[in-house]
User: Fold this.
Amino acid sequence: MEKYTVFYNGEAIEFELHRKKVKNINLNTRPNLTVMVSANDNVPLDSIKDFVKEKASWILKNLSVFRATQTEHDTQKEYVSGESLRYLGKQLRLRVETSEEENVQYVRGFLFLFVKDKDNYVRKKRLINIWYRKRAEIIFQESLDKIFSLVEKYDIRKPQVIFRAMKARWGSCIKDRGVIILNFELIKAPKYCIEYVILHELLHFKYRLHSPYFYDMLTVLMPDWKDRKKILDEEIVRDL
Assistant:
């Protein structure tokens, strides 16, 4: 991996270049404000820089969205009544109530947090995270079961799905272990976005690279995948 810089209207754009066996020059912006470019060894560096300059306006727009997201992250949740928490693409209103029996319940657009001490921030955060994780275990597995039916006939074995905190991607796969790893934050996205990420990773069990064959198959199985990806990258990420 090498780093290079190009300039657009006086603004510097730094990107990481990865040499891979890909047909086209591929470019991605990440929520951690990195710009990733992949190209094969035969593509001259000058051509890659020209490509980045052509995409400069789009790159700067995406980075601006991600910077705004980081600013929002600086405002930490207090877990008090009236706050909004995202779940499956919906904004849930939080209600915190004192109770000897601590738990979290989702009822008709409200998330009820029952806790012994309403001022115990650490305990409130832990209870909310436990609830999110329990829901993620269920929703991610249900989504895998649904989407796997689309690819089963293509000699793809059903993998195990797990989740973890991930900064720069929505999902990944470990082909040798038969595992799909999902970003834990996906539980805050609509189900159809979760299903897109799962299908994307399932296809990597057939096509390792983002080749034209990969995208052709993705489009056949999920014609609106670009719309789902756009919602993830431009809308959902703002609320994470």
